[in-house]
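Researcher: Predict the fold of ABC transporter substrate-binding protein.
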Amino acid sequence: MLMTAVALAASACGGGGGQSAGQGGSNETFTYALTGLPTSLDPADYQGDPSRNIGFELGSSLFRWDTEGLPGQGCGTLANVGQVTGELAESYERAADGKSVTVKLREVKSAAGNPLTANDVKWTVDRLIALKVSTPGTLMQDVADYATDPIKVVDDRTFQIVLDAPSAMDVAILTWSQFRVLDSTEAKKNATADDPWAKKYLSTNTATFGPWTQTPAEFVAGDRLTLSPNPNYTGQRGDVRKLIFLAVPDASSRAQLVSTGNANYATALQYEQYAQLKGNAAVEVQTCASADRIPLVLNAKDPNLAKPQVRRAISLALDRKTIVDAVYRGFNKPSLYGISQAYGVDPGPEGTYAFNVDEAKSLLSQAGVGPLSITLHISPARPGSEAEQIAILVKTQLAAIGIDVGIQTVASATEINTIFKDASYQAMLYLEPPAVADPYYSVFLYNSSFSKLNTFGYKNPELDAIATELGKTQPGPERDEQHKRAAAQLVQNPGFIYLVDRDFVHAVRKGFTNYQHAPNGEMFVHTLKKA
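Model: Structure tokens for ABC transporter substrate-binding protein follow.
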């Protein structure tokens, strides 16, 4: 497997002549090793992290995170929803009542030479709605309170976003990669009566207004994708002239490609591999702020686990620092607060996790619960290969308060996600990776009783009320106070019990600079410059 991957990468980098040692081949080529490649390029056909990685690189978004003025260009501090700027959007203005946003588009063209119009935006969004695409639907309807028919065309270069209620997330959700604006002129040429949304065409054609383009021959479904510059793109452009995605399922093989210079970057390495790559003088290991978290999920449909005292007791019995120190080789952080510390708000003692075995035992006694036995479902697919190590430590720590934990391992991401969706578990280690990094979204996503993803039966009316306020309030002191109150609720009466606050860890070959560290953790290769 490794020999094949290395051969592919060497071929992708152009063979031998003219390559600079330690830079993954020519400085104008960036080779990106993924766990796999999707079988479709259609933003409506989301196939997990590979679709996400490619989607963000394709760009063509109306808005992007403005990281330029942040420490480490966003590596040290997450951009917030007030730090969003236009990409295809030239300007935007909210109505006084907050129930509409008027957006003016830049004068840009797709790779096919078609001018961007408001009708492209409407067609793109209408398509996501008609095809019932999950994450965009949740973001529009449940997170940002978009109207049922949210895009109103004003003229060729102007449209309105129509909302049912004011939302701090109104434009921030449009940074998500599945909202990339499609060239509807080209797509409609390839639509049919049986395929009105051009799904067949868009499965092999990117058809965007972003920095890259490709031909169908340059996409081998599930295997590789080669992107070249969109000749009509006038936005920020660095020095990379070819971006190659390779499917390399084995983590050791991906790490080896970066180590030897046959790839510039690889996703989803194991932490011991990141630690080893730190010792490679030709590799830079970047550790950046992230809102991703690993929670312990307790099914509130279980009569014992539904009791707030029991949930709080389990949280108090968990030594998060010991877990992180034992598992992560110097990466990641123990969860400190009910809401991720990456958002930069200290919620005070009420919103801060404590480790107190004696208090945990007392709470179990008050709840009238004797010795408990629970089954903990885990998967190396989600949250990751570290799941078993975390589970063993959780088992040991909960034994100290009389809770016996049995561990049930599930191999595939599909199976663990189905078990979560169906709530067919007592306890589970999971992963919370917010599509839009924001305190409101993090609170709402799984812990709000109004969220479709709250499958575990947790209901907290006080938290729901605070979340509603957070969703309407722009960043500032008032929102910070709401944030603190929400964090306190999640510590004192926990829904998800957070264990680990993940960092974004990137192992990249040296040779490029100007990384834009957006809160989604992606590379944005088109902005990279030669070192």
